[in-house]
Model the fold of this input.
Amino acid sequence: MDKLEQKFQVEFTFNVYFTHHLFAIDNPLFREAIPPFQGSNPPSFLFVIDEGFLHHHPNLVQQIRGYFAAHDAKMTLAGAPIIVEGGENAKNETKWIDNILSKVNQMKIDRHSYIVAIGGGAVLDMAGFAAAMAHRGVRLIRVPTTVLSQNDSGVGVKNGVNAFGKKNFLGTFEPPFAVINDLQFLTTLEDRDWRSGISEAIKVALIKDLDFFHEIEENVEAYNRRDLKAMTSLIKHCAKLHLDHIAGGDPFEKGSSRPLDFGHWAAHKLEQLTDYRIRHGEAVAIGIALDVTYSLLKGNISEENWSRILQLISGLGFDLYAPELHATTEDGTLQVLKGLEEFREHLGGELTIMLLEELGKGVEVHEMDHELIVESLNILERQHAKVTV
Amino acid sequence: MDKLEQKFQVEFTFNVYFTHHLFAIDNPLFREAIPPFQGSNPPSFLFVIDEGFLHHHPNLVQQIRGYFAAHDAKMTLAGAPIIVEGGENAKNETKWIDNILSKVNQMKIDRHSYIVAIGGGAVLDMAGFAAAMAHRGVRLIRVPTTVLSQNDSGVGVKNGVNAFGKKNFLGTFEPPFAVINDLQFLTTLEDRDWRSGISEAIKVALIKDLDFFHEIEENVEAYNRRDLKAMTSLIKHCAKLHLDHIAGGDPFEKGSSRPLDFGHWAAHKLEQLTDYRIRHGEAVAIGIALDVTYSLLKGNISEENWSRILQLISGLGFDLYAPELHATTEDGTLQVLKGLEEFREHLGGELTIMLLEELGKGVEVHEMDHELIVESLNILERQHAKVTV
Done:
């Protein structure tokens, strides 16, 4: 056959930093995370900030201005920050992306300039997608402000927005330039957002790290009284497990396997079915409860371990069930079952779902029994009623 | 410092095939280029076809249908092909991308499905960008139909569209799944498109391969009488040089160097200044003439070699100059000089321009003398007048 073969490797590196009071004048981290520039002018930084976060940190923009003024030989602020709506709406409406791209053009942000996205996972996903597209990739610094984004999505290599009513229909794989987690930012989270990211830690502990599962179990009370030290430990441990998994696996998901999405097939659908009333982390907690119950019915885990996991989830204040799980289409099919096909469709190829082989160890399966899913849902509904009574 | 370090490598591989009569039933190439599928259904293929090309190949869609019908155990056609406008308009209007994404959604094209783009470089760039975004990356098979796209852009790792009046303002780096060059497709090209891709071969020969430069010189007459064998040799040689350069260099252009863009800083601006009346390859021929003349004035190449290169370019039927090169802004500045800054801005960092150190060898510089550029333009204008008289 008459052909030329192309083959090359690309190395990707970035650091995930942990700090407190990121934009305090005397905190050297941000400045030191930026490499010396080439050329005649210091690089430009365009900030994109989550409106909800800004509400709790009204002095943030002034602090950033002060920080840049103090380091103006090394870096330049490109105009006023772009303030965007937080939460899933950031990913549902195209105007936020359009606005960022327009500013990239006006402010002459180039491929050696930086977009700094400060906010929850949705804002980071959306701003990251804009950064990945502009000039085929402007440098992105993620500053995640929620537990969920600090321990999970913020340290990953994906970005995206929703389209055609489908979550992350558009996006790319694009490692960030750096991730900076300011743990102090977590203190102003409302309880729901403080809690919801813990579900991703439970997820990765259940499939990969029994010791970590024990750590989470032992600290339920500490998390519930918002102990920042306990949470910091959880976030670092969880972020490390995610980073290692990505580096050791299939970073750009060329195959059909997505082990880090344990509990996620139902979660994605549930978010959509509730119009995002249920937040991602909360939906993942329910999705884990569902897949753990399914694993029980399959005989993969003991009733004792099943009960332990559900107790952990509800002990943290998560719901185990939402009525939308029983919503049906016109022909009587459970809506949530469509989530299985959408999950397969997004990645393509064969359906691949992660379940539990035992506590601390995942196993991939390529089909799920619809009757057992229904039975699992019924069990969860009863369990939920029991807990909430 | 409190940090986690992420580091991983991703390997990218794809083949560039050469064939004749790609969709003839008895041509096994397309079928064999597709790996066996996993799961229960053969993968779907969504075709995006350049309207201008289809005009010259009115039976193409029928041929594709026949080919897929003959191989329906291995691959499935996803609906009717999407016909898009060819040329730069494909990259200037968002409706083409929107249409592709909407079909990806309707036809349930997933990450293991294929988008097959058939057309010139602009259509491949636009369809490739849509494929890269959808589900964070649907497999893309490029079927370039012009000399330019077969020997240059079609074998590369970029895609993109224009925005804010700037060429390739949006796009990503995303290697294709495969590239299939059907040399027979070239026979229906109009003379301009047959010729224009030769400039990219001259470009890469001048900076990398003296023997190839001689091959091109010796075959001017053969190219001019549209000898397919001579052109096939040029395309393969040029594609190979491009592939090797990408694999051996900085595939995703993280640095500021873009050696394969010799002659391109002025070319991009000229395309825009002429509202794309001058096609990319034609603009590159002029851009090469300009940078070669500048290299002469800098004393890097001899007058004999300068004259030889210009003779080759005009011997192939290319213009050496366009009046828009002398267009000025309101304040009297030459518009084309803005191309230098836009070129720097796109890649970011330091301005880096490839010039000639000698025939067959490039050298990078970080500034250009505006007066020498003006002098080069004047020389080209006179040279052009001399040739066309």
